[in-house]
């Protein structure tokens, strides 16, 4: 049963969300979108200005200007610094709403040490709908070089973006990356696969839409989201408490403070576990990282 939030609780939730979103909007990572990734380096374009920049694997700006200038600079650095992917197995990590690639800093480091060419992608999650974010990911895959396989690790909204990417057929960009990359495995961390009770509860209030943008409206509207083929190996890591009461007493069942365990489930998923961690920090939890690495390597979370 859906819980009914009191006006006071809704106002408290919106106040907290407004403070968080205000900080996020000032965060420069919401202003840059990855256009190409290679060996930890990335070409980004500004979401509002006709300018690009090239970042190295330590996030230092190495070139700034038009896309062609940044692309040419990347080719030059490939030669002078002998850049090459760490592995032919690329792992794309997609953060959640209002977050940045920093969410996956520990995960990215761990997966690289395990032999994967892991890269946490930057995308302006408050400015586009799910399909728009999927367009960006597909372009990155079409431009990928030096890799043969791609797997995905997502947090929250990122899981719905991955679902959209994997459901597409027939588009020219889709055909390009499908023809050159073998699909590996998918790990979704705290995904609102069945919608969000919390989002639905506050969706009637305009600030929710002002803060979260188009993708937030889609989450509140709920499923159906893009289907996932049963042939794709998917695992789900949900957050919750050991006792099953959940971190947020406003929600109707065990939860990570934002998403309930039931909302994370996806029919056909190969594995599912609950980690005792809050929604905002679950991606960096050691148990989450170990389970993700294990699934990518073996097809089991543990």
Spell out the key features of this protein.
302 residues; alpha/beta; Rossmann fold; six-stranded parallel sheet; four-stranded antiparallel sheet; 10 helices; 38% helix
Helices and strands in order, then pairings?
Elements: H1 7-26, E1 32-38, E2 41-46, E3 52-55, E4 61-65, H2 67-80, E5 89-94, H3 105-113, E6 117-121, H4 130-142, E7 149-155, H5 157-167, H6 172-180, E8 182-189, H7 197-202, H8 206-221, E9 233-239, H9 261-264, E10 271-275, H10 286-298
Parallel strand pairs: 5-6, 5-7, 7-8, 8-9, 9-10
Antiparallel strand pairs: 1-2, 2-3, 3-4
Helix pairs in contact: 1-8, 4-5, 4-6
Describe this structure in words.
This protein has 302 residues and is of the alpha/beta class. The strands form 2 sheets. The protein has a 6-stranded parallel β-sheet with strand order 6-5-7-8-9-10, with helices on both faces. It has a 4-stranded antiparallel β-sheet with strand order 1-2-3-4. The protein contains 10 helices and 10 strands. The two termini are 32 Å apart. The protein has 2 domains: 237 residues, Alpha/Beta hydrolase fold, catalytic domain (Rossmann fold, 3-Layer(aba) Sandwich); 44 residues.
The number of strands is 10
Strand order of the largest sheet: 6-5-7-8-9-10
CATH superfamily of the largest domain: Alpha/Beta hydrolase fold, catalytic domain
Cα-atom radius of gyration? 19 Å
Give the oligomeric state of the chains in this entry, treating copies of one chain as homo and distinct chains as hetero: single chain
Q: CA-to-CA gap between the ends?
A: 32 Å
- The H/E string reads HEEEEHEHEHEHHEHHEHEH
CATH class category label of the largest domain: Alpha Beta
Low-confidence stretches: none
Bin the strand percentage. Answer: 15-25%
Helix content: 25-40%
The CATH level-2 architecture of the largest domain is identified as: 3-Layer(aba) Sandwich
Cα shape: globular
Structural class based on helices, strands and sheet pairing: alpha/beta
Q: What's the tally of helices?
A: 10
| Average pLDDT for all residues | 90
Let me know the largest β-sheet: 6 strands, parallel
When the domains are counted, the total is: 2
- CATH topology name of the largest domain: Rossmann fold
């Amino acid at each position: 049963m859906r819980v009914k939030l009191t006006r006071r609780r809704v106002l408290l939730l919106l106040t907290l969300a407004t403070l968080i979103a205000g900080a996020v909007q000032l965060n420069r990572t919401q202003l840059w979108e990855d256009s190409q990734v290679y060996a930890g380096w990335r070409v980004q374009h500004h979401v509002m200005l006709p300018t690009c920049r090239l970042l190295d694997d330590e996030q230092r700006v190495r070139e700034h200007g038009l896309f062609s200038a940044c692309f040419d600079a990347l080719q030059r650095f490939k030669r002078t610094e002998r850049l090459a992917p760490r592995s032919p197995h690329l792992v794309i990590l997609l953060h959640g709403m209002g977050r940045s690639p920093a969410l996956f800093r520990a995960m990215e480091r761990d997966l690289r040490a395990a032999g994967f060419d892991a890269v946490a992608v930057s995308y302006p999650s408050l400015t586009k709908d799910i399909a728009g974010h999927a367009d960006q990911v597909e372009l990155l895959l079409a431009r990928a070089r030096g890799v043969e396989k791609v797997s995905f690790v997502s947090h929250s909204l990122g899981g719905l973006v991955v679902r959209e990417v994997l459901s597409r057929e027939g588009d020219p960009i889709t055909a390009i990356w499908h023809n050159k990359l073998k699909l590996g495995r998918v790990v979704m961390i705290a995904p609102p696969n069945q919608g969000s009770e919390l989002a639905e509860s506050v969706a009637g209030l305009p600030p929710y839409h002002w803060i979260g943008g188009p993708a937030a409206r889609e989450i509140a509207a709920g499923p159906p989201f893009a289907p996932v083929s049963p042939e794709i190996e998917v695992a789900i890591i949900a957050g919750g408490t050991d006792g099953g009461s959940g971190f947020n007493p406003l929600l109707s069942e065990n939860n990570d403070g934002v998403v309930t365990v039931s909302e994370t489930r996806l029919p056909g998923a190969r594995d599912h576990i609950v980690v005792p961690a809050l929604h905002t920090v679950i991606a960096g939890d050691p148990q989450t990282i170990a389970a993700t690495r294990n699934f990518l390597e073996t097809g089991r979370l543990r």
